[in-house]
Amino acid sequence: MLIRTADTASSLAGMIRTPFRSSTITDVLKKPHRGVLIALIGCDGAGKSTLAADLTRWIDTVRPAEQVYLGLGTGDLGRKIQALPLIGSILGRVLIGKAKTTRTKGEKIPGPVTALVVYGFSRLRYRRFCKMRAALANGISIITDRYPQTDVAGFFDGPGLSAARAEGRIVKFLARREAALYREMADFLPDMVVRLEIDAETAFSRKPDHDLEALKQKVDALSHIHFGGARSIEIDACAPYEQVLATIQSACQALVG
User: Fold this and answer.
1) d(CA 159, CA 151)
2) Beta carbons of 70 and 148 less than 8 angstroms apart
3) pTM score over 0.90
4) Could you give the CA distance from residue 184 to residue 150 in angstroms, rounded to a whole number?
5) Of 112, 124, 121, 129, whose CA–CA distance to 173 is shortest?
6) Proportion of the chain in helix, strand, coil states, percent, rounded to 5
7) pLDDT digits (tens, 9 = 90+) for 163-185
8) How far apart, in whole angstroms, are the C-alpha atoms of residue 21 and residue 132?
């Protein structure tokens, strides 16, 4: 095992505003009883959700702790849409096609409606992020399932409107606003990034409802995401679960006290 230190139309409309700042990063770090922030990163199937739950329970025996999901949830939503009777498969293909175009470098974002939906999901993620920061400032330690980043655009928790080409005043405006949100989130560094390393085939055996090619892309992308140089550890997520959990606990012991 390798270890290395180093969220209705009116709602969406209301999201297009100056990003909310509950406090600056410096203010949060000055809090005398700030909680610990640990981010679990890895391809689907690496065990992030289960590990986040178990690590949260472990830390909660020493200090207050919460588990926070910082993904978009679009993958699960897409699979639910495809499962709808009659129109599900057709609608699913249309949505998947637009999503793929939006996250492909050199393509054009397919119109303001698609851009607004992508931006809306990013705003929902930003709201959850702000709530997480508030809890952290109040002394709650946080274990996140996923973490926003700016190294890889289009997927894997990166900005959704920064990969394909933005054309038109509305689309360009939304792309700029979304990029600013992701820069703010990515600049807030975790105390520890746990990088769960897994191969695509093992991930697919654990998540057979996922697309194998998409899993391969995520496995490859992980090596290009640096999270601002935050302290990190690399974990072999193919190892037995109890071994993986114990290794993470040992690496984070000094942080949680």
Assistant:
1) 9
2) yes
3) no
4) 10
5) 112
6) 50, 10, 35
7) 999 999 999 999 999 999 999 99
8) 12
Residue 134 φ/ψ region, left for φ over 0, alpha for ψ in the -120 to 50 degree band, beta for the rest: alpha
Q: What integer pLDDT is reported at residue 83 of this predicted model?
A: 52
| Contact call for residues 23 and 255 (beta carbons, < 8 A) | no
Tokens of 126: 């930003």
The CATH number of the structural domain formed by 9-256 is 3.40.50.300
pLDDT at 116 over 70: yes
Contacts of residue 74, defined as CB under 8 A and 6 or more positions apart, other chains included, come to: 99, 121
Q: Whole-angstrom Cα distance, residue 15 to residue 116? A: 10
Q: Is the separation of the CB atoms in 231 and 5 below 8 Å? A: yes
- 230: tokens are 């935050």
Block residue for tokens 């495809």: 82
Residue 206 CA to residue 202 CA, distance in Å, equals: 6
**Six-digit token pair at 179?**
């990029």
Q: What is the pLDDT of residues 185-222, one digit of tens each?
A: 999 999 999 999 999 999 999 999 888 999 999 999 99
Burial class (CB in 10 A: 0-12, 13-18, 19+), 108: middle
Domain chopping of the chain, boundaries? 9-256
